[in-house]
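Milestone M4 deliverable, item 7.
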Amino acid sequence: MPPPQPTWGHQPQPGFAPYPMVPPPRRSSSGPILALVLGGVVILGLGAVGVFAASFNSKVKDTGYSSYTTYSPTYTYTTTTETTTTTTTAATRTSSTKAQSTPTQPPGPKAVYRLADHPIFSTGVGANDFASCPLPPMRYDPAGEEAFLSAALPCIEKAWEPAMKAANLPYQPVELTLVTAPMQYPCGTVRTDATARYCQGGIYWPAGFYANEQGGTRHPGVYLGQLSHEYGHHIQWLAGFLKAAGEAQYDAGGFDTAKGLDLNRRKELQATCLGGMTLAPFSHKNVIPMDVVNMGLSDAGQRGDYDRTPADHGSAPNNNRWVMHGHKQNDIKACNTWAASSADVS
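Output delivered:
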């Protein structure tokens, strides 16, 4: 008898149909395989990739939310009257208020709300190398998880901030919130018995979930791999992909239409590919032990829909292909899932 599956649930986002949360069954995974993708089209010549320390049972699929704001993430409303400052538990933000005025966009880099023809794909940017990333020993209590993730995020920011600036796109650091009890967040309700969520500049991390999901694989690489996937959603938000995808889903008749689900798989597989890119600098210059990187890639490559419906995240083989392609190429054009064939995002 398979082990009990986690309970899934959430609240719909404004403007989005809810993501149905249906966990896949456990099953053994085939060896990692790499898709050779060029210009966003996956060439179906597959070969074994011998970089993983070990294979292990498949995990439940990532169910991270994504959302967007009306303007570029770094935009604020201009004012002609007073300015007020608001402080949240995650970070301090300054917002401006204006009486009876029209919001305007200040000068500076702006998100581009396009998909396959997004200009970032012509820039050649990738995740930049960094000299070191001192990660603490992994502990699987909430404080230990938070310490590990908080130490990894500055390294990820160092990898992506120069890339976003080189692409003339807005940049801001992501905010991390460790979730130890059910709570409301901008996209609905987040709980501790479901995977990490991304929403409007923030990653919401369920304490204890990954260490215990379906028996758990207690390895820091799982945490680094899933953090990299969620950060991939942050890159999508900054660049404008999330808003463009959401509008395209709305135009297609909603999330749960065939086209809406196809768009969602492309979005999730792009985040997986960007996660592979994020792990590239960690594997250079002996920044961290390679078994941590390899486990992160392996874990990301074994998540997916597993023949369950609705198919909204892509199959495990396709997740494996995209994460490995992003990792090997470390070039943003490798992650143009929007231009890939339907079979490559199934």
